[in-house]
Write a structure and sequence with these properties.
With 474 residues, this protein is mainly β. The protein contains six helices and 27 strands. Among the domains are: 2-144, Immunoglobulin-like, CATH 2.60.40; 156-291 and 396-410, Immunoglobulin-like (Sandwich), CATH 2.60.40. Strand 11 and strand 12 form a beta hairpin. One of its GO terms (cellular component) is cytoplasm.
Length: 474
């Protein structure tokens, strides 16, 4: 099965909107060494989406945890429509095929609990007592939302923080869309303490979060089981402004972070069984040496984002399958002094997709039951956060401020086919070689830590990664 050299597998535009499909063209090459009899000769293309969720408890059956749907299916018959057996003499034969994919199908994806796959197959069915001949290959389908000539850095969005605004005024500015093949993200963070005489910014953690939501449905598209995976494919970075020499809490702080995307980051996806979204998550830890015990916390609100799957009615039905979203961990300050006087103290994690399984925030709760970890409804999170906390008698008071900047990750229309040197990390938008990144990028390690001390030590690990695949840094 040979695809046409001009085939790119690009779906342009947003699904269910003004978009363009793509055409899969090529030839099925048949090499015949001696005469063979053929009853039927078929070439077909099938697109399939499958989700497998493991439910807990005796009430969950295997049928409810697995769902498979056909996205596209079409076949071409070259021989056998008339019911007669034909004979192919020795030689080489080429049978051209053409399949038109509609614009609303999702792009190819493979995750921990499901996949979207497009497979091209050919089969020659022979008479009785003769072996059939089959061949197959997967076809990669991508969705491109913007032309490669568009400069992504010009499309930026600024979001204001809404949590604990009586203690900290903060905002973040970042691009709204970028490419997964070498896209450059410039994240700018501005912070202003409200009581600088007793407050300081202890830590700032930033990361790219990839949220994958899986679900199985019934005949009416109602959710039966659901599961949410929060991944950090580029790791996370933590720095400590209060440990920097010359730190002045009364001044307005301005910090910048850079992220260079690589093919380890998947593109956004939205289908009936799977949804994949991205966001830049910033965690700011504010330290207050003299907290005001009579001051009311007025900023516990969390705004709904586009990462929520269901509507309000569906979310009420699926509340029993829900749990809050997780955010990047907050590392404790490093005791070592800063070596560079003009840069904040920095700690990087290893580029692991399993970081979210190591760390957890104190605001996470155990409110989910069997059936999955779907995003919790907003009122449930509010009620949990408003529960009275135990007053601390020793040590400073710590307050966590979180801000999420939505980010759309799309695929490039054109990528380099040969191995080239990677571009400059700071100021070039062109992607590194796709195949070079796949060959040189190490697999994400999986940590299994049992003690808190080991977990805390894992946050300071900085594993060496090939220089051809840059890491996110501040």
């Amino acid at each position: 099965l040979e695809l046409d050299p001009s085939f790119s597998g690009i779906l342009r535009g947003v699904a269910h909107d003004e978009s363009e499909g793509c055409t899969v063209t090529g030839n099925c090459i048949v090499m015949v060494n001696k005469p063979i009899k053929i009853r039927r000769f078929i070439v077909w293309l099938e697109g399939r989406c499958k989700v497998t969720l493991k439910g807990t408890g005796y009430s969950v059956s295997n049928n409810e945890g697995t769902e498979s749907r056909t996205l596209y299916s079409k076949d071409i018959h070259f021989m056998g429509d008339d019911g007669l057996t034909q004979t192919l003499m020795p030689g080489q034969y080429a049978y051209p095929f053409r399949f038109d994919l509609p614009p609303n199908v999702p792009a190819s994806f493979r995750g921990k609990r499901g996949y979207v796959r497009y497979r091209l197959q050919a089969a020659i069915y022979r008479p009785m007592f003769a072996h059939d001949i089959q061949a197959s290959r997967d076809v990669s389908i991508k969705r491109c939302l913007m032309n490669d000539g568009t400069h992504m850095g010009d499309i930026r969005e600024t979001l204001e923080g809404t949590q604990h605004t009586n203690k900290l005024r903060y905002s973040a500015t970042a691009p709204s869309i970028t490419h997964r093949e070498g896209g450059l993200i410039r994240l700018n963070m501005e912070m202003q303490l409200q009581r600088p005489e007793t407050q300081s910014i202890r830590t700032v953690t930033c990361a790219l979060r990839e949220r994958v939501q899986y679900r199985t449905t019934d005949s009416n598209a109602n959710t039966i089981l659901s599961k949410t995976d929060n991944l950090f494919p580029l790791g996370y970075s933590t720095f400590y402004p209060s440990q920097e020499p010359g730190y002045n809490p009364s001044e307005k702080a301005d910090y910048n972070a850079l992220f260079r995307l690589c093919p380890r980051v998947n593109a956004d996806l939205n289908s009936r069984l799977m949804k994949l979204t991205h966001a830049l998550v910033v965690n700011i830890m504010v330290e207050d040496t003299k907290p005001d015990e009579h001051e009311e916390e007025s900023a516990y609100e969390t705004e709904a984002t586009d990462t929520e799957w269901c509507s309000e009615d569906e979310r009420q039905i699926d509340t029993k399958h829900s749990s809050p979203a997780s955010t990047p961990p907050n590392s404790a300050p490093n005791s070592a002094p800063s070596s560079a006087p003009n840069s904040p103290v920095l700690t990087r994690s290893s580029s692991a997709s399993s970081i979210t399984s190591i760390f957890s925030l104190g605001r996470s709760h155990n409110g989910y039951t069997s059936g999955g970890e779907e995003l919790a409804s907003i009122p449930a999170i509010k009620n949990h956060r408003r529960r009275p906390k135990k007053k601390e008698t020793h040590g400073p008071h710590l307050t966590l401020c979180t801000l999420e900047v939505p980010l759309v990750v799309t695929s490039r229309e054109h990528i380099w086919a040969e191995n080239h040197n990677p571009p400059s990390y700071d100021d070039v938008q062109e992607p590194p070689s796709y195949h070079t990144a796949l060959d040189d990028l190490p697999r994400a390690p999986t940590y299994q830590m049992a003690t808190h001390a080991a977990t805390h030590a894992a946050a300071k690990v900085f594993s060496a990664v090939s220089s051809k695949v840059p890491r996110s840094h501040v």
